[in-house]
Amino acid sequence: MQIDIPESWHAHLNGEFEKPYFQKLVRFVDDERQQYEVFPPEADVFSALRHTPYDDVNVFLLGQDPYHDNNQAHGLCFSVRPGIKPPPSLVNMFKELHDDVGCRIPNNGYLVPWADQGMLMLNAVLTVRAHQANSHKNHGWEKFTDHVIKVVNAKESPVIFVLWGGYAQKKKALIDTSRHTIVEAAHPSPLSARNGFFGSRPFSKINAALRAAGKPEIDWQLPNL
């Protein structure tokens, strides 16, 4: 597995890559790739860190598991490649985005413009076997991404952590709420969106917290591609 991350993350993460658990994880993912199709492609596994360098992280959206159907996952939680139909959770995010801040619903689910504005969009698990949800959980990714949460939490500058659903909300213990803001709601999945995601207005809450911290707000309007 290639570890391709920008310089700004190296000082904070380099030690993790040498640890036995991470070496074991690398062997596991490499073995999986030899036997099965694994998403996202190797070059995209760390793309969340590449699009949002450490110093630029103002918002941290935590996902759970990469999309496991063809051509969807590209290393940013909830995002799909251009030309791929947005999955149901993302459709619900766009509905709430429209209701919350009036954004036009785009013709694609490619969320890179948000990442490029300082929103780290990281799944807790960074790889998955094709068509088998959660097939790479409990192999070490969670330990690595918990460490990413901890190093972002260590930033002096306030960060808004966005935690949708019970899985993400378990990470609250890693966040110092005296310095950082948590925006939480139900998960946008069709199973739970009507139980507290719709109407939660997360996008305006994020921008209000950025404004209060004296940081640039995110332009949520995604371009049509």
Number of strand elements: 6
CATH architecture: 3-Layer(aba) Sandwich
What series of H and E elements makes up the topology? HHEHEHHEEHEHEH
* Integer average pLDDT: 97
**Largest sheet entry:** 4 strands, parallel
Q: Can you walk me through this structure?
A:
With 225 residues, the chain is of the alpha/beta class. It has one domain: Uracil-DNA glycosylase-like domain (Uracil-DNA Glycosylase, subunit E, 3-Layer(aba) Sandwich), CATH 3.40.470.10. 35% of the residues lie in helices and 11% in strands. The chain contains 8 helices and 6 strands. It has helices spanning 7-17, 20-35, 47-51, 88-101, 112-115, 141-153, 165-169, 202-212; strands spanning 38-39, 59-63, 119-123, 128-129, 160-164, 181-185. The strands form 2 sheets. Strands 3-2-5-6 form a 4-stranded parallel β-sheet, sandwiched between helices. A two-stranded antiparallel ribbon has the order 1-4. Strand 5, helix 7 (165-169) and strand 6 (181-185) form a beta-alpha-beta unit. The radius of gyration is 17 Å and the shape is globular. 39% of the residues are buried. The mean pLDDT is 97.
What are the main properties of this structure?
hydrolase, Uracil-DNA_glycosylase-like, 4-stranded parallel beta sheet, single chain, Uracil-DNA Glycosylase, subunit E, Uracil-DNA_glycosylase-like_sf, 35% helix, 225 residues, Uracil-DNA glycosylase, alpha/beta
Layout of helices and strands, plus pairs?
Blueprint: H1 7-17, H2 20-35, E1 38-39, H3 47-51, E2 59-63, H4 88-101, H5 112-115, E3 119-123, E4 128-129, H6 141-153, E5 160-164, H7 165-169, E6 181-185, H8 202-212
Parallel strand pairs: 2-3, 2-5, 5-6
Antiparallel strand pairs: 1-4
